[in-house]
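Lecture notes, unit on binding sites. The following record was shown on slide 14. It pairs a sequence with BIS(adenosine)-5'-pentaphosphate.
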Amino acid sequence: MRFILLGEPGAGKGTYSAVLIQKFNIPQISTGDILRASVKAGTPLGLEAQGYMKRGELVPDSVVIGLVKERLKQADCRTGFILDGFPRTVAQAETLAAIMQEMGLQVDGVLKIEVSRGTLMQRLTGRRVCKACGAGYNVNTGLPTKVPGVCDKCGGEVIQRADDQPATIENRLNVYTRDTAPLIEFYEKRGMLRRIPCEGPLDEVLSRVEKVAREVSKK
Ligand code: AP5
């Protein structure tokens, strides 16, 4: 099973991928997570990426494509993968198609997460993450920590992501419209896109996403 989860910042890509990888026993490849880990570790990649991420801009294609290419070659990707946050530009999508062809593989489908702008804002401004273990919470959507600011799982400090401040959110949404939204047409033309309405309670949305993922993989 090989999927791409496509959607605006805060649509729910990370949340739904985390569940799908358990169901299908395949890895999640999140370029955002890889980049954030590099920033935290202070690697050369992290140092290059952090300014772009703080401003809500895309990290250059040359950087991101290289790291995805390396990741896809790893043994755990042989049985499949979920791409979360990649591709994000037409150039990234074209390169991914070339990599897949080189590897003799194909992506089963692109799951497009559909939510309103209001829901995106609510999800993004309410999102909190544990600094220590990465567990996710949301103070706006009914997923808060039991004790404010303290992770239920590890007791670590729960914070707001640096790029979830209102001004940066606005920039991320504009960048999505300019650079990433053209991928909808790109994949629609290739008959690969499935739109999934993702408003509503998490358990209902998750079963909808899982159902479409299963249908797509049986094609
Ligand atoms: P990245 O981390 O990929 O950020 P993003 O695409 O902006 O997406 P988010 O992580 O903000 O949202 P999500 O869709 O995963 O939503 P989530 O599941 O958390 O990228 C960060 C940065 O890295 C980019 O800005 C860029 O600089 C760089 N980058 C990354 N990839 C790149 C690439 N390919 N090329 C260039 N640069 C790149 O959900 C949001 C919240 O909503 C959560 O709190 C969740 O619990 C909640 N929620 C979701 N669904 C529901 C529901 N149904 N009910 C209740 N709550 C819900």
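Take-home: The chain has nine helices and eight strands.
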